[in-house]
Amino acid sequence: MKILMNVYLFYDTHLPEKGWLQGCYQCDSITSRTINYKNVNYNDKTIKFIVYICNTCKKKLKTDTEKNFIFSNKCDRYISEYLKSCRPETPDPSGCFF
Ligand SMILES: [Zn+2]
User: Fold this and answer.
1) How far apart are CA 89 and CA 51, in angstroms?
2) In Å, how far from its chain's centre is CA 39?
3) How far is the CA of 28 from the centre of ligand 1 (A)?
4) Ligand 1 (ion): which residues have CB within 5 A?
5) What is the per-residue pLDDT for 17?
6) Which helix (H) or strand (E) holds 77?
7) According to the model, what pLDDT value does residue 5 have?
């Protein structure tokens, strides 16, 4: 069976990391809104990358293809760094967070 884990992308703020309010990954304003950016299959895990993004940025990204492109690049870069930091031999998936 596949293990499903969630990884959240957000702008680093003073807020507690486990809270439901985080900084928008695009503009750093505080938001509770998220999008499911993508699912990545990694070893026997499915990692769901969830990005905090405020309503304003979400609308902007929908209409502005250039911004959207830059934003996707930023997310993808984060994801590839993240996957690099998860060593395949690590038995406990909770051992790899930010
Ligand atoms: Zn925003």
Assistant:
1) 27
2) 10
3) 6
4) 24, 26-27, 54, 57
5) 81
6) helix 65-85
7) 93
